[in-house]
Design a protein that fits this description.
Structural class: alpha/beta
Largest sheet: 7 strands, mixed
Number of domains: 2
CATH superfamily of the largest domain: Type I PLP-dependent aspartate aminotransferase-like (Major domain)
CATH topology of the largest domain: Aspartate Aminotransferase, domain 2
Radius of gyration: 21 Å
Number of helices: 15
Distance between the termini: 16 Å
Order of helices and strands: HEHHEHEHHEHEHEHHEEHHHEEHEEEH
Strand order of the largest sheet: 2-8-7-6-5-3-4
CATH class of the largest domain: Alpha Beta
Amino acid sequence: MVVAGRGARRKLSDSLREATVGELLAELGGLAPDSDEPGDIYGNGVVERLERRVAEVLGTEDAAFFPTGTMAQQIALRCWAARTGNPVVALHPMSHPERWEGGALSVVSGLRTVHPTGEPRQPTASEVAELPEPFGTLMLELPLRDAGFLLPTWEELSALVDAARDRDAVVHFDGARLWESTVHFGRSLPEIAALADSVYVSFYKSLGGLSGAALAGSASLVAESKVWRHRYGGQVFRQFPAALSALAGLERELPALPSYVAKARTVASALSSALAAAPEVPWFRVHPEVPHTHQFQVWLPYDADRLTEAGLRLAEETGTILFRRWSPDGPPGLAVTEIEVTRPGLTWTESDVATAVADFMSRL
């Protein structure tokens, strides 16, 4: 699919897997506003410039650059555990630390987790309020990616934060994809970030950077996190490629994200109409029906490998990519894929979606 994606003429988004080293180097060469700027050393220079820019965009006192979001969040949560005196973190079982970090919160940081809910949705304020044991930190993944890139409403989010405060807990946002949440919430990034005590954001998700993340919050928390960043091995000698690409993403992609969200909603609606009209589809799900961000899920009652193969054939034979990889989920014969709409997808019409769906189904 990577090869097919590179050769495709029409697609809803570019894949992070498709770029070559040569292409990435060529793009990086045009990102430095001043080629005579001294190279960064252990987080100064362009890295500090990025940290100041993130704090400005999110409206926080300060921000720290991290090589990975996994490191940033583990450090944030262990800092809060020390400050609150409680090592228990309340979070969703489908959140990134629980699913994709190898149990690092407990193995590396000595923390313990509790779950307000096991349902594939955001927790409610009452579930947080009724947790049977004390917790020091409430971590909310915004959006909750594995459940379908789901966000609460602004009122629900505010109530969740209030419920945590009533439990004498602090609030941390896993905002890897927070950048695109402004449309759904109807609020600015500083307004969203102001609800939390700390916020993690990613630079390669949504913004298209090479790598890296930031932890934003109060000046004292950020200073403490930098001490732990060094202890965790995150004080990398030179990081200017990641920093420059992150700054470029904030400049180029961040302003475009609302248009991606709007187009994703058009695409989701067109997909629903086209799949409902397809005789080969006995059942389908576009989730959520109105996407909360520029990403959403599609479910079909077919084997995942069969669906992936059909998508590959569509790309090779027509130059169009509609779906990429599918994964099995639930009972046998049910598969799910993620749709992302970015700059390449802005030109798609409802008719384009309908044609692509018909061409895809003909290859099942």
